[in-house]
Write a structure and sequence with these properties.
Oligomer: single chain
Number of strands: 6
Number of domains: 1
Order of helices and strands: HEEHHEEEHEHHH
Strand content: 5-15%
């Protein structure tokens, strides 16, 4: 049922948003040379790796495929279009293709890069429960996101707050909760921690 929901919602969203997607792609190409889409290896269900898609928001030669350097406010690597699409979560829209492919779900724990860190520690070094969040497909949005736990992970609490929400999502999952999280996402698309 969840997979059918993902296919229907992502396909409808891709069709309805296609004018916006084409417009953003053109704007990215006009501002700076390079690929329109940014591909980054992320951890998926059962710790399998997949290539997550995003609109490129940085200058092509400064993209960080391994996520070894966190993006900061006023980051010089981010283009003007990149600032706009990151601030409004538009850079995440190509993940609808990941959902259609079956790499991701509309709702679930957000996928992290392999080298993502908080307080100079890899995520799984901070909390042994971290691996449990990979029991399901990662999501375009999730419980942590609607609670405001997004953006750079500078402190260990930045990760543990997300992780607690992810584990709560796994424990209390229902299709009704997925639809509620999708609805609530509308209100957090633009967020101060998205930069």
């Amino acid at each position: 049922m969840k997979r059918l929901f993902d296919i229907v919602v992502s396909a409808i969203a891709l069709v309805l948003l296609s004018p916006l997607l084409v417009g953003i792609a053109i704007a990215i190409r006009l501002e700076s040379p390079g690929a329109v889409l940014f591909r980054q290896q992320r951890i998926g269900r059962d710790n399998t790796l997949f290539m997550m898609l995003k609109f490129r928001s940085m200058f092509d030669d400064q993209c960080d495929a391994t996520a070894s350097v966190l993006t900061t406010r006023s980051d010089s690597r981010v283009t003007r279009i990149g600032q706009f699409i990151r601030r409004n979560s538009i850079d995440e829209l190509p993940q609808l293709i990941n959902v259609l492919r079956g790499d991701m779900s509309m709702v679930g724990p957000r996928p992290h890069a392999l080298s993502a860190r908080a307080a100079e520690q890899l995520y799984w070094e901070i909390d042994a429960r971290y691996r449990h969040r990979h029991a399901v497909k990662p999501g375009v949005t999730g419980l942590a996101q609607i609670r405001g736990f997004r953006g750079a992970t500078v402190l260990t609490a930045d990760l543990t707050n997300r992780l607690s929400s992810d584990l709560e999502y796994l424990r209390d999952w229902s299709m009704g909760k997925d639809m509620w999280i999708l609805f609530r996402t509308i209100f957090v698309i633009r967020h101060d921690n998205a930069f």
